[in-house]
Every structure is written in C-alpha cells, then in structure tokens.
Amino acid sequence: MAADTMLRFVATPQSYPDKRPAELRAEDFREIADRYAIPSAEEQAGRCSQCGVPYCTVHCPLHNHIPDWLRLTAEGRLREAYELSNATSSMPEICGRICPQDRLCEGNCVIEFSGHGAVTIGSVEKFITDTAWEKGWIEPLVPGPARGQSIGVIGAGPAGLTAAEYLRKYGYEVHVYDRHDRAGGLLTYGIPGFKLEKHVVTRRVDRLKEGGIVFHEGFAVGEDTRFAELRQRHDAVLIATGVYKAREIDVRGNEASGVIAALDYLTASNRKSFGDAVPDFDSGSLDADGKNVVVIGGGDTAMDCVRTAIRQGAKSVRCLYRRDRANMPGSQREVAHAEEEGAEFVWLSAPHSFVGEEAVSSVRANRMRLGAPDASGRRAPEVDPGGPIDMPADMVIKALGFDAEELPHLWDAPELGVTRWGTVLVDNKTLMTSLDGVFAAGDIVRGASLVVWAIRDGRDVAASMHKYLKAKAAADTKVAA
C-alpha cells in the first residue's frame, strides 16, 4: 500500500456526492444525488485509515471487506474493487443506496470518532458497482453442474433473490414464486425511486432470469397452489415472504376515509412510476396532491411516505413521532433530507384521534414526554398532561411497522411452527423450520428489518440448504444401492 494513497483523512475533508437542490429534487422521483466522478471516488476512498480492527466491517451484517475495496478504489483498481465488493454481497449497489450507513459502517468508522468525518463508504460502494455495470464487468450468473434437485423459493424480495442466486450457483434448479407481478418485493414496490431507482433492481432480476432461475410472478401460495403441493414439487422449499401485515393503531376514527396504510400508499406510487393503471391513485384516495398529509411513525418507511407526499404535491406534510429526534429508529440522514424538502416533524406527539364525519379532516395528537426506560432500555413515551394539539389532515398515513401474516392459516399448513409474534420458527443453526426440507429466512424469521440483513440471511440459508440437499442426495443414493 503506497503511503501517499491512503490515510488522507486529515488533509482531505469528507465529501459526499452533490445532492440536487431540494426544490428541484422534490419535483421528481429520481435519486437525489448522482454518483462520484472517478477522481472524487478515489480521493474519498483514500481517506480510509486502514485500521487494524475495521469496525466498519464488524458492524456490517455482511462483513464486507470494506477497507480492502476502499484501498483498491483509491489505487484506481476499480475492477478488483468491484470483484471484492461482490464477493460478500449479491447487491452491493443496492446496499450502497439504501443501507443506513450512519447506523452501520460509517457510524462506526474510526475516523468518525476522531472528528474528521467518516469515510463515505456507501457512496463509494454505489460508485464501484454502477461503474462495473457500465463497463460490462458484471459476469452472467453461471449455474454449477446440475445436481438433479429442485428448490422452491417463496418470495422474491432481497432474501429470496439472494438465496436463489447462491443456490443456482450450486447447481440446483430454482423456482421463485411471488404474488406480485414483478420481482423485488419491497425493493420494487416499497422503496421510492428517489432512494432506489427501479432499473437498478430490474437489472439484478434480469441477470437471475438469464442465469436460468425460473420466476413465477403473480403466483400466490395458498391460492394458485397449496403449500403441500409446492413441497411435493421440490426437494426443498425456502420461505422468504417478508412481513407485510401493517401494524395498526387503536384510536377513534381509524376507519375513516383518508386514513391509509403506508405500504398501500407506497405501492400505488411505485406502480404509477412503472406506468401501471392504479385506480385508487387515479381516484385521489392514494394520491397526496393538494392535501394536508400527516404521517404517523418514525422509521424509514415513515420517511419514505413523507418524502413521497412532498413529490406528489401535498399542500403540507407533517410527521408525528411519539419520541424525540434522538430516539427515532429511522435514519437521521433521511430526516435531514425530508426537512430540506419541506417536511415538518412534530416530535413527542402521538395520535389521540382522527377527526371527521366520513373522511378525515384533522388529527388530534397528544403531547408526549419521555419517562423511565422500558424493557428495551429506551425511555418510554407517556402522555404529557399539557393537552392535545390539532392539525389539519386530508390524508393520514400509518407507518407504524409491519407484522407477519398468519402463514399457517393462509397456507393451510397448521404444522408450520411460528413464534408468538407470528414469524416463522427456525432452528438457529440450520434455519430449517418445523417441517423437514422447509427453510425460512429474512424478515419472516427476524421480523421487519434491514435489506442488508435479508441479504445476509439469504446467503446463510442457501449454504444451509446446500448442506441439507447434499446429505439427502447421498442418503437417496445409498438407499438405491
């Protein structure tokens, strides 16, 4: 490593790719920042301190070799940087766009602690793989030698897609079943284009299709076929459905017209971006144009809703969160982006009721304060006796998180074990469910979480399924002999 290539964090200030002006980016769904030019990427990568214990890698769920590909980028060896980045992640350019780096790799960067500002890891990661796509360095998915065994993957989100890719490389016949008409799960329909433009997802899916993975889109297990029949069709099955059941809030007026679930709202917006016919959007019920919008929640989904409403031309956009800014679960960067674009955050507030005769017309919110820590260690919100506040609202978007659907009931599979939260119960070592040959991974196991964790789970479950199927093939051969 050349001494003049790295360790530049003292002389070179931190610099992210330039964001488009807030008033301009709020008019469209393009990503808000372009990627680096090559000299800028190399310069920012060269700020890495190459520390002996890379906390960025430790705190990355995929344990990406971050200091190594930063060094290669700084040295201008971009193809090698891409290959190393791709070695541990099946979607590095997606993680570079949507991972909350401020809570993971960059938030644990050693030079961040020294006051010099973290290395801009996510932006460099995005730059590396976008360059690889442009230069034609992305290799086709080449299946391993055929094993004569097939796998059914239920769910085409990040966990299912990652597992499918690894399993195809092992040589299995892989079929992916998804109830949506496009693969990608929340990457396609849940995350807005200003964070993740859809061609970025589409080109990943196309690569998997070209590699021989068979996609059954618009296919709902429990409706188009029974779960038991799917098990008979394949040598092993992976459940990677994610969690899509909207978490509800028990307040008066919850059923009023204009009070909607976050995922319904985001899906409608993304479908319009694809050019789909969306009657509920066209009728105005899922379109924020000209409306006073109130979003309930403090996570990344709430931020997505807030920023989508701004782009749709909302008259006003407020976000209510029951704790303060320092205790919100979402990315602080996303909050800053939303504020720049015109959103108002009403901290320490929680809905008391949604007011309106037939359609919602306002939100009455309790003022909150933080009390003693709860079981999680966070200070629990409690109602402040100062009295409620009222704010106009023609649309209320509930972004309170997601729970698991009742899969044993939906799939007529009462023998499928679930936890008390409804997530699928698995063996922690093998990731196999209570059913032999049926595995599960991603949010349907861990609950609503990050895309990077879903990718990690997909990678892990593929290795476990490979081990199981090799043993099954060996046992079948022994019996036949």
From TrEMBL:
E.C. number, please? 1.4.1.13
GO molecular function per UniProt: 4 iron, 4 sulfur cluster binding; glutamate synthase (NADPH) activity; metal ion binding
InterPro entries in the record, alphabetically?
A: DPD_II, FAD/NAD-bd_sf, FAD/NAD-binding_dom, GltD-like, Helical_ferredxn
Give the Dihydroprymidine dehydrogenase domain ranges: 25-136
* Superkingdom, natural source: Bacteria
Record protein name field: Glutamate synthase small chain
Species name? Sphingomonas mucosissima
Q: Which residues form a coiled coil?
A: none
Cite the PANTHER family for this sequence. Answer: GLUTAMATE SYNTHASE [NADPH] SMALL CHAIN, GLUTAMATE SYNTHASE [NADPH] SMALL CHAIN-RELATED
Q: Which UniProt keywords apply?
A: 4Fe-4S, Iron, Iron-sulfur, Metal-binding, Oxidoreductase
Q: Show where the FAD/NAD(P)-binding domain sits.
A: 151-458
What EC class is this? oxidoreductase
